[in-house]
Each structure stands twice: as structure tokens, then as C-alpha cells.
Please model this.
Amino acid sequence: MEVEQLTGNLLQGLVLGAVYGMATMGLSLIFGVLRIVNVGHGAFIMVGAFITLWLFNAFGINPLLAIPFAFMFGMGLGLIFYYAAIRKLRNAPELATLLVTFSFGILLEEVVKFIFGSEFRGYNWIVGKVNLGVTVLPMSKMYACFGSALVALLLYLWFNKTRAGVAMRSVVQDSEGARVCGVNVGGVYAFSFALGIGLTVVSGVMLTMFIPVGINPYMGGGYTLKAFVIAVLGGLSSPYGAFFGGLIFGLIENGSYTLFALIPGVEPFAMTRFLSFAMLLIILLIKPTGLLSTK
Amino acid sequence: MEVAMKRKYFKTLFIIFTLFLFIVSGYANAAARSPDKIQIGHPACLSGKYAKAGEQAVGGIKACINWVNNVYGGVKIKGGKVPLVYKFYDSESKKESVTSLIARLITVDKVNVIFSPYSSGLTLRGAPITESRRMLYMDHGGANNKIFQQGFRYIVQTIGPASRYHEGTLDMIRMIDPKAKRVALAYEDSEFGKMVMDGAEKHSKKLGFDIVFQRTYPKGVTDLTPLLSALKSSKPDIVLGGGHFEDGQLFNRQMADLDINVNALSLIAAATLPAFYEALTNMAEGVMGPSHWEYGVKYSTEEAKKAGIDWIGPSQEEFVDYFKKAVGKDIVPDYHAAEAGAQVLAYVKAVENANSLNSDKVRKALGKLKFMSFYGNWEIDETGLQIGHSMVDAQWQNSKRVIVWPIEAQTGEAYYPMPTFSDKSKGKVAVPE
Model:
């Protein structure tokens, strides 16, 4: 029975992990290119969740179709924030960018609260289930998982196979050298920030496909914490590394529950949280650049 | 000369004695005279995290005060009829504000009783202040039993204690389905959640149920899949759980995702709220939740007569009308309003029985008080814990909340067993034939 449960939980963890990975890619991309830690990361995830909720409840739009809309909205939001504040703070002390991104988060939370209120909301998208024997997976979760994997793949191809992607990598490696070679470094920074925010907002759509309830203006906080752990796992500045970090995190989070449940007197959930953050601490001590980093 | 001196001496004595009699009789008259007003002090939660519950509570208190002053004619004390005056400030749902506002209400505003703020945490925070000043402290928002295990003498509860939240649900299932045996308990890892779980565990065992699963989950949880997978493998007939609104939503949703079909599912704090059904739609059909009060309960003067208990206060419809006028909105009061309103009635009845505003005397009278109102029964034990009031159980039936328990309050029969999630996804609703 425990083996069956463990297998079921690992499968669920893999699906959830893909979504976690997607939710971290934007954070890693922004850190990788601009060296800025987006402390308001979770608030952008929340924006994506509200876009899905609004489109579904008001117009009956399928959450899958909300993805391009959320991406464009996120890119626009990213460009506004970049030109309004980030551009001027590119060379400012780290504390300044930390405070600015923190204030972005607060700003977004309060605007969304003003428009939608602070209640916990949800939507009910029924698209069938797959019974795998050891567990049952709703199709909405499968879409979120495969959608996240597809985005990670596209990002990888874009970085490695397109001129724009190569230009972005060149800025990461040596911004002065890239400038000398004719790369519009300022434009790359703006586009990277916008892309990072766009991906994060899309991850909000994916997360509601996994968990379509509990949508509220302050839902992002918990995901920000998890995203930092996953970013460290995935190598901090590598967006597709973050995707694999998410998979590992999901597997550990769900799989360890079954194992901790075998210990008498232990509340497994309390231990899975402990394990996640103990893991972060150990990785930072052993390999501060991140577990999957090549540096 | 000596005679003159003596006369002067007796004259002085006479004046002093007369003055003494005058003062004493003045004091005696004042004590016998009814007061001009009776002031209720309240550190309300009108903003911050408990603003919604706080607004309801203030509306409920105002509604019942208006009923007492305008329909009942005032509080009968020392031969007079005295109006109630409501003095409240916004505590912003903050602990530090609660303590300072209670001190202000007692020392500056000279109120006669303090009504607690919403939530167990804030109620507990105010208790030492009222105790140290020997002030009666009436609790309509703190359900945690631990408040009443601290040895406080002046606190009295109207809201039902956490340990009794799921008693009614279990009683009802035992009556409907004597064969149901396997109970799973999964509550939030909080003081409140654990208190409800302890009560449910004890009552399950008392009724002969087997506890086949018992675990907690942390606050702010975003995925319950691992816990629910383990719960599923324990094959329960009945699932009781929850903690707050957000995890209640998640609990129901993920039970649907994992196809965990049980005869009954009851979730505290979430399942009775309209937003629960709005988010889950059909997936919430047949799901139950305990509530302190629901609009539509059948408590009435006739029910009180049948039970041989005194009735006090407005009818349910009168209360709703007064509430709407008090808040200035066309909204139906929820249980936060009802329990706060019922507390006004308990205080009024106790003051009349004690014929005094002295906290010790009123507390003693509250200890002996037993009555029914639109809110249901009211009775406390020696610690001040509410033992008379029964929770009602509401069930979602065709997108409406139907009160299914207790029998004296029910507006419809329970749908049992709950439809499967597969049937619900095809549009089946939980309407009894």
C-alpha cells in the first residue's frame, strides 16, 4: 500500500514540479541577465492567476487560451516596470533593486485587491481525468505539466538557436564585449526583464490549472519562497535549470510525505517543509551557485 | 456659661448627625435608583483581517440593542427601564489595540460590560485586562476552549466552543446511517483546528465510530494531494476536516481531483460560505459544514415553549430587519452577527435577574441563565464555556444552503450519501427525493 502511495505521490510531484519549475523560470532569467533578485516575484504569479480567473468567469475562456493573453500582459507589465524604475537602478546597490521589486509586489497586490477584493476565489474547469491506477490525474493538471515543459523547451531553443537568444547570452557573459559587437545591451535588458515577467505571469495561469482555488491578492508569498529554493536548486541564473529544479523540488515535496508518514508520531507535512528549507541551506553552504550550475 | 457651652456642643452634634443622615440617605437613594443608561463597550474589528466578521458583529449588536430599546422598552432594573448605549472603537483586528481600547472603555468611558473582539486570539488578549479590573467580559468571537481553561472568572461565552463543531454532524450521521463506521479526520495544524479535531475524535469514539485516519496539515498549504492520497487509502465513510476558508476550498477541490468518494464530507469554516460554492460550483454539492447559526433556522417562541425554556429577543425576521437597518445594507446577517446579537440578549436578561450592574452579580446571574432566542439555546458551565448552544449543519443542495441538523432548526432533510464527484461533474445535484 505504501509503495502504491509513494508512486502515486511521486507522479503527482512530477506534475506539480513542472509547474513549480515554470513558476521559477522568470525569476532565474531576470537574475541571470540583470543580476536583480525579484522579491515581488509571487505577485506576478498572482496576476496570472487573476487573469485566468477573470477570463474564465467573465467570458468562459478556456485557461489554455488565457496563456497568450497572460504572456502579452506580463511582457507589457515588465516593460512598464523596467522603464519606470529598473533601468535607472541597473547600477544601484543591490538593496535598492530589492526594495523596488518588493514595492512592485505590494503595488500589484493592492491594485488587484482594489479591483477584485481580498476574498479567496476559484473556478471550476472540468476536462476529465486520467486514472493511472496508483493515482488519478485531472487533465487540467496534465495540460499545466506539459504546457510548462513546452515553455521550458521553447525557451531553451530560443536561447540556443536564435540570434536574439545568442545576443542575450552574450550580454550575460560580457555586456561590454556584446556592446562592442553591436548588441543593443539596453534593449536586451528591457526585453529580458519583460520576458521574465511574462513567463512568471504565464506560470500563474499554469498554477491555477493545477490548483484552481485559493486565488487571492496575497497568494504569491508562498510561491516566492518556493521559487527561491527551486532557483538555487536549478543553478540560480539558468531558466531551464530552474525547470529541472522544480521537478526535483516537486518530487521531494510529495515523495517525502509518504516516507515521513511511516515514522510514528510525525506529522509528515511539517517535515516536508522542514526538508525543503534544510535542503536550501545545505545547497547554499556546499554549492552557492546552485546545484545544477556548471560553475 | 457651662449651659451655653453644652447647648452649643449639642447643636453642633445635631448638625453633624443631620448632615450624616442626609449623606447616607442620598447614597441609599442613589443605590436604589435605576441608572440613566447601561453602556456596552466593544473593541470591534472594523478594519484589518477580521473586518468582515467585525462588521457583522457590530451590526448584530446594534440590531439587538435597537430591539431592546425600542420594542422591549429598555432593561428592567431597580424599578426603571434603562436604555442600552453602545460604545465601540475600531481595534483594526490588532492585539495591541484591543488591550488599550479595553482599558480606555473601562476607565474613560466607564462602560458596564465589555464585548470581546472577533477571534480566539484577540479575545484571549483582552481577558487579563478585564479580569484585573473585575469587569464582565462577554465572548461572541472566540471559540477556543483554552480561553476557558485559564481560570478567568469574568469571561462568558456565547459562541459555541471549538470542541463541539462536529458533534452535530456525527450525531446526524449516526441517526441516518447506523452502519457508517469509518471516520477520517484531517484538520489544519492550528490551535483552533486541533481543538475541533480533539472534540470530533472524542465524540466519534463515544458514538462507536472507528477513526481510520487522523492527520493535520500546515497553515497556508497549497497542495493537499499527499495527505488526501493517504486519506483515500484508509477508505473512510465520513471525512471531517478543515480549518479556514482557503484550505477548505482546496480540500474539497483536491478530493474531487483524486476521486475520493465518501458518504459525507463536512468542512469547518469554509463550507457554509457562499464563496465556497461560487469557487467550486457543482463539486460542492452535498458537502456540509457546521455553523453557529444560519438564516432560516426554525428557533421560535413555540420551540422554546415546547422545550420549556424562556424565550427572549426578536424573531429571526425582526432581527434580520433590524440588522439591515443597522448596517445600512440589504445583506443577510451571518452567524457572526447572530452570536453577537444573542450576547446582548443574554446580558440584558442577566442584568434584570441580578437587578444590578455589578459585574460579580451579573456574572452570577449569567451562570444560572438558560434561554432560547433566534440564535438558539444559551447556557454556560461554571467556567463560562457555552454548553447550551448547538451548532447547526448546513448542506449544499442544488446551489442552496439547507439546514439539515438539528431537527428543531432544520429547513430540509440531509442528502445522504453525498453524490460521487464523477456524478457531480455530470451535473448531479444533492436534492433529496
User: Anything to note?
Assistant: Strands of chain A lie at 129-131, 136-138. Chain A touches chain B at residues 1, 4-5, 8-9, 12, 16, 119-124, 126, 129, 131, 135-136, 138, 141, 211-214, 216, 222-223, 253-254, 257-258, 261, 267-270, 272-273 (CB under 8 Å). The CA atoms of residues 20 and 226 of chain A lie 8 Å apart.
